[in-house]
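hiii so my PI (J.) wants the whole complex modelled not just the main chain, which honestly fair. so below is everything: three entries, each one labled with what it is. i double checked the lines twice but i was tired so who knows lol
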Amino acid sequence: MKLAYNPDNKDSIIAFAKLLIGKSVQTEFKKDIPKLNLSDKDKGQLGKVIEELYFKYKPNSNSAADFKKAGLELKSSGLKQLKNKEYRAKERLVLNIINFVTAINQKFDDDFLVGKNAHILLVFYLYKKSTNQLASIIKLVGDWKYPSEDLEIIRRDWELIKKKIVDGKAHELSEGDTFYLGACTKGSKGGNLRFQPNSKIQAKQRAYSLKQGYVNHIIASIANEPLAVYGKLIPSLAVAKKKTIEDIVISKFKRFYGLTAEQISNAFAIEYTPGTKSFYAHLTKSILGIELDKEIEEFEKAEIIVKTVRLKENNLPKEDVSFPTFKYEEIVKEEWDESDFKEILEHKFLFVFFQFENEELVLRKVKFWNMPYSDIQEAEKVWAKTKHVVKKGKIVKEVKAGIRYTNFPNKTFNSVSHVRPHATNALDTYPLPKKDRLTNKKEYTKHCFWLNSTYVRDEIYLK
DNA sequence: GCATGATCATGC
DNA sequence: GCATGATCATGC
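here's the output for the full assembly
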């Protein structure tokens, strides 16, 4: 059979793939799709149709690239579109499954850089909740090779994941451990436990993945969107080889330890306006040498969450650390492993600590941090109790002097996290899945998960 | 002085 | 209009 492309030639494959832009496979292959017996639940169904009906080859699950001779791996993934029409990744890009047993003897150059990951051909479709994946319109097609600076970061990420497996801690892996390359869970919820070589504890099956923020950069590159809105911390391969993101950030901040926020802002000729929302973000960018109107490229790719914390003189943060509000109707449907809260907690954070000293705020230190496995398990208890309370319709415990006291997990319930209101006022609400038993209301003031200030002090600032 | 509920202010 | 960082108010 004569193919419409040359499977041994990269350019030919890529050019042929680009002919898919603007089409849906549903329309193109209506007649043949039923023969593949795909399940609607199969998240990889679009990829299978493109492989078998468009490129006309059988999908492989071995370690060789899909187009073996050309060294090209085909992947399809979803896009969402912002109000300003720009595209963003719907989710992380999942690469190959990590074999815990063989991983401990592998080398980065032989594992990651050959086979499936070195050169990827990406087919992005526009995701819509109401649309079947096969009917989605393909919007962007292009190939991706890692810039050499990124590969240095990915190499360190890969080494860290390997070290955890070597140390018998595959069950403690978290996406927050690493910067661009994550070890994400893969497979049906809860199940899919695997043996690991250096521990008796079974670990969730995991795959290497590129963080959603990293995929956004791949998308921008393929879509030819201007990258001028980003400023870089790592200007060259030489710097990337010598220093980690952490090294660079900490060394830049260190020069200002002990200075007040006002002194630092004066050093950069930025206005000292601690009341405005952007002040601390601007201070951080100035210290890092990033122009104020630009985003920090490495932070965006690694999805680093920056939190500025102001400590009282006794080292206790003045406020607990908040996260986005959760929706009652959604939390009751979530499983922990797919929950928004766990997703946030598996990020990498940069904490910037200031401390009050005679009414002035002094920069104490910065710290990269991600939540240890045992604390994520603690946070799960807070999440589970919250879900339970909403599900039972037992949010309000009692009403005293017009104030509603809740059954949500408080600071004494758990040392890591608690649940508290986060709203404009009591009338700023989300709908409830079930009427609250005591108040008979079908909506409730917006709440969110918070990190306890004592936890931030003891486990992040003082450690 | 802390815990908990309630609210404000800014910026997009 | 809403998300987010910040702050206030009350009671123990």
